[in-house]
Amino acid sequence: MRAAGRLDRTFVFIAFPVHIMDDILWAPWRLAYIAENERERQERSARDEQNRVEVRPDGDPGCFLCQAVADPERKRRLVIGRSENTIALLNKFPYNNGHLLLAPLRHVGRLDRLSETEQAELTRELNRLVIRLEEKMRPHGFNIGLNLGHAAGAGLPGHLHWHIVPRWNGDTNFMTSIASTKVIPQALEALWEILAEPS
Ligand SMILES: [Zn+2]
To answer: How many whole angstroms from 173 Cα to the centroid of ligand 1?
Structure first.
């Protein structure tokens, strides 16, 4: 591998300052998540509890990424691919169609806890996922970024994950016309069929 250390630093440098959203995407289905009441939250927790699998020894049972890593049922977890040290899945509460998450298999929350192999592999997989999205969904651009820590908006600060959000010209307007909380679960399954790689 060519100058992996150098490549890693470049990647980190790029990933740090990028805001996920340069302009605000209207994603009303996220309201289902944000505005769920206590009963709905409990129901969701109960469902998650039922589907819970035993995670790797270094994993966190309460972490949805560790759960996805350990669960052989890829579709249920919206996992579209994995490599030796990374996993890629659809974001259940997307900012845009095709919003992917890329994470190391290990439950680590800090960049400096990634091995050089993991960093190089994450860079390679990020590149591969962008190409896959380009091939399958023909976006006009991407927002790619990493939220480190609660203060930066990380919903899951203990397990690093990169957001890959495809963008289309005019999608901020387009989304308002098609978005509905009801169509999203179907859309996610259909999208999984399109993007999932053979296991
Ligand atoms: Zn985890």
So the answer is: 35
Give me the CATH number covering residue 21. 3.30.428.10
Ligand 1 geometric centre to CA of 2 (Å):
29
Ion ligand 1, residues whose Cβ is below 5 A away:
60, 63, 65-66, 107, 159
- Give the pLDDT band of residue 96 (cuts 50, 70, 90): confident
Distance CA 101, CA 78 (A): 10
Number of CB atoms found within 10 A of residue 6's CB: 9
Structural domain range at position 48: 3-195
Q: E strand or H helix at 165, and its extent?
A: strand 162-167
Number of helical (H) and strand (E) elements in the chain, helices listed first:
7, 5
% of the chain surpassing 90 pLDDT: 50
Instruction: Please tell me which residue in 99, 159, 161, 163 is annotated as part of the active site.
Output: 161
Work out how many domains the chain is built from and give that number: 1
Q: What is the pLDDT of residues 46-77, one digit of tens each?
A: 888 888 999 999 999 999 999 999 999 999 99
Residue of 124, 131, 98 whose CA lies nearest to 4 = 124
- The reply to whether 161 belongs to the active site is yes
Give the model's pLDDT for residue 175: 47
Q: How far is the CA of 12 from the centre of ligand 1 (A)?
A: 20
pTM: 0.76
**Distance from the alpha carbon of residue 75 to the mean position of ligand 1, in angstroms:** 18
